[in-house]
Specification:
The protein has one domain: Nucleotidyltransferases  domain 2 (Four Helix Bundle (Hemerythrin (Met), subunit A), Up-down Bundle), CATH 1.20.120. It is mostly helical. It is built from six helices and no strands.
Length: 138
């Protein structure tokens, strides 16, 4: 097992999965749907951010100094992860899509953003579980 703790990522992922399960079983024009959608969007954001932070820690051995890693952008973290064979190029592209979707929250925190996020959730959950597995491995 890695010395990088993925406990918080696991909690974020469980919250995301629960929110997703609840929204799928709730009628769209209800306040419950709004609550679950808001929870899903926030859980998506938190899971995405945590994933990047943990992958950055996983990359530390590939750099001469921690400072070099600290200056990597979110997308650079995933590019380097692919370069060092931690994840494949297809996964990198999906993570870029997740990040671009997340960045749209600054412009559109309404229904259209949430619906776009919903389309990504199933694959995002799979990718996050795989990333957690990679981070947990030595």
């Amino acid at each position: 097992m890695s010395d990088i703790s993925t406990e918080y990522l696991e909690k974020c992922l469980k919250t995301l999965e629960k929110s997703y399960a609840m929204i799928k079983s709730t009628a769209k024009d209800t306040i419950d749907y709004e609550i679950y959608r808001n929870s899903l969007v926030k859980s998506f954001e938190m899971t995405l951010e945590q994933s990047g932070k943990l992958l950055k820690k996983k990359l530390l051995p590939f750099f001469a100094t921690k400072r070099e890693v600290d200056h990597l952008s979110f997308k650079d973290i995933f590019r380097y992860a692919s370069k060092h064979a931690l994840i494949d190029e297809n996964a990198v592209e999906r993570w870029f899509t997740y990040r671009d979707n997340r960045n749209n929250t600054a412009h559109d925190y309404g229904q259209s953003f949430a619906e776009e996020t919903l389309k990504l959730i199933e694959q995002f959950i799979k990718d996050t579980k795989e990333l957690k597995r990679i981070i947990d491995c030595d």
